[in-house]
Amino acid sequence: MLLYTLYEIVGYLISIIVMLVIVQFVLSLLISFNVVNMSNQFVDAIWRAVNALLDPILRPIRRIMPNTGSIDFSPLVLIVGLQILRIVLRNLVLASM
User: Fold this and answer.
1) DSSP 37
2) 13, 53, 79, 90: which has the fewest C-beta neighbours closer than 10 Å?
3) CA-CA distance, 53 to 81, in Å (whole number)?
4) Is 68 helix (H, G, I), strand (E, B) or coil?
5) Nearest 5 degrees, angle CA 96-CA 4-CA 19?
6) pLDDT, tens digit, for every residue of 2-56?
7) Per-domain residue ranges for the chain?
8) How many other CB atoms are found less than 10 A from the CB of residue 81?
9) Contact yes or no for 79/18 (Cβ under 8 A)
């Protein structure tokens, strides 16, 4: 039962990270197309907070991945890796029951 509880906690944390990646992606699109302005303090605060949370996770992925020009695939790699981790953990929990 403890293993299932830990799996649930890790699953929630993975969901939070995935949502942060999606927020960062949408916000970067809105900024690049001038829908929102970075001089707005609220937008700037959210942008800095999301980047501060995700940069330590994305930086090692960016170092490993080849340079693809202006397209950054590291958030996609992060999401796929987290989903694989979730599947592996789920199967470990199911195998232990």
Assistant:
1) -
2) 13
3) 17
4) coil
5) 130
6) 899 999 999 999 999 999 999 999 999 999 999 999 999 999 999 999 999 999 9
7) 2-96
8) 13
9) yes
Counting beta carbons within 10 angstroms of the beta carbon of residue 21, is it exposed (0 to 12), middle (13 to 18) or buried (19 or more)?
buried
Tokens of 64: 């490993």
Note whether 21 and 38 are within 8 A (CB): no
Tell me if 57 sits within 8 A of 78, measured CB to CB: yes
CA-CA distance, 80 to 76, in Å (whole number)? 6
Q: Quick one: tokens of 16?
A: 């939070």
Give the tokens for residue 23: 């927020």
Residues in the chain: 97
